[in-house]
Structures are given as structure tokens and as C-alpha cells.
Amino acid sequence: MLALALRFAPMTHPIPNTKPYNPNFASGPCSKRPGWSLAALEAAMLGRSHRAAAPKARLAEVIDRSHALLGIPADWRVAIVPGSDTGAVEMALWSLLGPLPVDILSFETFSTTWANDVVKQLRLADARVLRADYGALPDLTQVNPAHDLVLAWNGTTSGARLGDGSFIAQDRKGLVICDATSAAFAMELPWDRLDVVTWSWQKALGGEAGHGMLALSPRAVARLESHTPAWPMPKVFRLTSGGKLNEALFRGATINTPSMLCVEDALDGLRWAEQITLAGLIARSQTNLATIAAWEATSAWAKFLVPDPAIRSSTAICLRIVSPWFTALDRDAQLQASRALTGLLEREGVAFDIASYIEAPPGLRIWGGATVEASDVAALLPWLDWAHAVMATEHTVAA
Prior knowledge:
By secondary structure, the chain is of the alpha/beta class. It has two domains: 2-33 and 277-398, Aspartate Aminotransferase, domain 1 (Alpha-Beta Complex); 38-274, 3-Layer(aba) Sandwich (Aspartate Aminotransferase, domain 2). It has ten helices and twelve strands. The strands form three sheets. Strands 1-7-6-5-4-2-3 form a seven-stranded mixed beta sheet, sandwiched between helices. A three-stranded antiparallel beta sheet has the order 10-11-12. A two-stranded antiparallel sheet has the order 8-9.
């Protein structure tokens, strides 16, 4: 009965007249920049060694353009590292933690992963996890400036984000390690209150996956050169050589072999972003959030997972379904229903990959970074109403 209802229910609800031009709203890998095509990769140095002068210069160009566009202080070092943002964060955790107690903010899937790694893998006895549920932030007043601090600036799986960083002391003793992968190029980052910042190519600028970026403050470099971790360091995590920072990594050398095709794509995204400017990128993301917020304010069935607008993400925009037919289901049934809803949208070619993260509360997650056009977001919203109406009818018939 349930499958039969889903098969025929779309015919009973008027289909919206306009589809998004670009249906890619996934939260990673994220949508390519407007107008992107394979022609953007024609100059890629394929079949070349990444150690040769010209390919290495391309890698250095990614570093230099990223450094300038994000407004990273001149005395910070920036490197391309393996393993995407995950590799960059793990490299920082394994290389830097140990000398001081550490606080970890845990409020969604990936920040919880960093907490588990610090506690269960590095087994630091003086680690303190400050927790909050999906949609909220931990009590930031509990952060101790005498401790190291590990945080995600933006909760990619919850849609909660940190604000201006005022809870971080400028005269802190500890280092602040910031996972910024769904914040960089979309939100202001307070560089004077951070010491390590990581991101990946496949997030806000829509690059290809597999490569991470690591930015280090002078304080982080000093820690690297004065601290020897108590555990063995895998080769892909090693940032020092002979007790000194491996400066080559911050001039275009890499620990392992990068994809020069991905490098060319990253450069294309950076050149596009430079035309927009960082302020323009942030404004485009904010417009996408505002477009959804205007719709959400009048929706009877969809509400933000993050109720407080002050901490609501403009990139990972997470929605919960509040309809009685949905809230009456157990979690497994909610997961099934939310994926059936997003499956309808995918089948119509309207929106791909917008189901909530598997560990998050069942619902929707729509990427609102700068590569997504506000006109596509606006065109998507009537389709969300349509898909919900179909699912509501299905459950009414099934009941």
C-alpha cells in the first residue's frame, strides 16, 4: 500500500512550473561555480611530476591565492595537505596536542569525531569535551584560555555556527585549532583568535575532493618546533624535519602526490572567487540563507534545526520536518520518509543529495555557499512543498 501510494501520489499534486537551473545542493562535494565546464581544466599539467618547477608553481599559486583571498595574516604559513579537511585536522591534532590540557567543542558529527579522536585515539587524560545537541552550541563561557581548544567553526551536519569568536581570549595561553571547512570562503573568520585553520577544496568553492588546506599561525609553528608528540607520527602527518618546520610544504611541495587535475580546478574556483571578493562570497551565501529563511517563516511543515538565527549557518542549512505525520514516526521511519522525500526531488531532477547527514536528526540539508545561485534556491522551495505534500498524502493513504 505504501509503495503504491508513493507511486501515484505525485500525480495528485500540481508540479511547480520552474526547476532550479542547477540542482546541485549537496554539502560536499559542493556545487561548481556558476558557468563551470570541463574547459576550465584544459591547462592542467597532466602527466607531469608535481615536483617539477611548473607544476610546483601551480601548487604554490593555490597557496598564495588562498592566503590572499581569505585575508590570512602575512606571517601565517599555508600548505596543501593530504586527506581533505579530515587529514588537515588530524595532522594538527596529532602534531600539536599534548603540552596543555585541551577543550573540545562537540556539537555535531565532525566536531564529535575530533573529540573522540583526542580522547580515544590520542588518549589525552586532560581532555575536556564541551557538548551540545544538534542545533545548539556548547556553553562557550566554559572555554579555558589556559587550555588548547579544538572546534569546528561551522557545524556541517547541524547547521549551527560560531559567531565572532569573542569567547576566545586574545591573550590565551593555549592554541586554537579550527576546522573551518564549511566556513572558509563563506563566513568571516577571526584570524587573531585562531592558530590553526583547516578547510578543503570540495566545500565552499566547489573544488574536487581529496586535498586539504592547513594554515598555521606563528604560535602554532612555535609549538611544532618545541613539542615532540608522545606517539609515533605517520609520514602523512609530519610537518617538521629535524625539529624545524618543513618550510618546503608551505611553498608548494606536498607530502604525497596531488592530482594536478584537481589543482587546476582549485585554481579555477579561486580565480572566480577573486572576482566576487571575499565580502561578495559571504554576501551570496547570506542571500541564500535569507531566501530559505523567508520561506521557512511561513512554512507549516519545515523549520530550521537551529532555532537561534544568531548561530545559524548560511552554508549547511539544516531543516527539520515538524508535520504530525512525520513526528509520530520513530527515528528509522523518519529516516526512510525523509529519504523518500528527497528521492522524489532527485527523480524530478530538482535537487540532488539534500537529505540530512545520516547521524543528524532526520530532515533536509541544503548547501547555501557562494557557488549556489539564489535564483536556484528560490526555485527549489516550491518543490520542497510539493514533495512534502506527496509524502503527507502517502502516509495518509497508508494509514
